[in-house]
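User: I'm writing a short report section on ligand binding and want a predicted complex to refer to. Could you take this sequence and G3I and write out the structure as tokens? A short remark afterwards would be nice.
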Amino acid sequence: MQSLLAQQRLSSLKEAFKSDFFIGTALGAEHILEKNTKANELIIREFNAITPENHMKSVNIHPEWNRYDFFLADKFVEFGQKNKMYLAGHTLVWHSQLPNFVHKIKSADSLKLFLTDHINTVAGRYAGKLNSWDVVNEAIEDDGTFRKSIFYNLLGEDFIKMAFDLAAKADPKAELYYNDYNNEQPAKRKATIEMIKKLKASGSKIDGVGIQGHWSINSLKLKDIEDAIVEYAALGLRVSFTELDLTVLPNPWDLKGADVNQNFENSPKMNPYPKELPDSVQTTLAQKYEELFKIFLKHQDKIDRITFWGVADNHSWLNGWPVRGRTNYPLLFDRNFEPKKAYTSVMNLKNTKPNL
Ligand code: G3I
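Assistant: Sure. The structure tokens for the complex follow:
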């Protein structure tokens, strides 16, 4: 009886959700280079989509005007191809993690030259190999105004169209995404929709919106998330959750989202679970993931991919942001690469109920 039950249970996330959406994870250098057997076994067993957490960002892939470094990005693509995974490129145009030489650019023409060379070279190199590109990342502020990035300051909002048009030409097969955090929330969502409508009306190709999904178990707004899925899909776009994680830690200044420019001093109050996560919080995390996945499943016809921003809790940017040196527990796998209660709650949504 036990073995029959075991057989009826689905063996992995990617298997459980295969008729709904891709299930992805973000890879660091140690994963791309297959340094940790346990981590890599888990990646291959559970996920069918990957995003490079850092190695296609301009600071890494294009460190100087005339120098590109494709080593880890190439290895990332090889890894994905070898394992027949969905490959998400991240990201062509982002105000953060820019190489120093870009910060020194003073004229619109030079910036256009950078964007053209960068997108042609990077998107061109991987043309036909990636399933999607996050073409522009985080161009809009939480209040709905354009972020005053170097791109906006020198080129105005036209930089967005320019980036999408260059990407469409350099890699005609990749699905082109606009990716942001908090873009499920009303003000930012409204501005994003306006921006996308303009882009489409001008004849540009855009295929999807990435909702990053850096959320907290203490302030998850399910209605905003559901409204955003419906409204973005109504534009004729695919929706993906591109960087999902749920922090369980207190949020200094009640900080929302993922503006990487902020940081805070560490303190025991800010790092309440340095050894292990109490059962009650583990249960809340599991409930929140279950609520989220119920919405994802309800709208699976509009959603292409759910990507977690990391493999297991030891490998999460949330251990270092917005407070350095904390112990966070935002993902479905613990520091020993074992599935957590949250994993079970998500899998239970799909497990065939034994008919005994
Ligand atoms: O590789 C260097 C290492 O050589 C050096 O010793 C160390 C010292 O600080 O820094 C290492 O680089 C860090 C890198 O992560 C790799 O760990 C950078 O300082 C650090 O800024 C970088 O943080 C990344 C952050 O984006 C900024 O690029 C996070 O890993 C990454 O998870 C995070 O991801 C972003 C998404 O791309 C966009 N959406 C928000 C999301 C979270 O901020």
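A remark for your report: The first strand starts at residue 22 and ends at 27. The radius of gyration is 20 Å.
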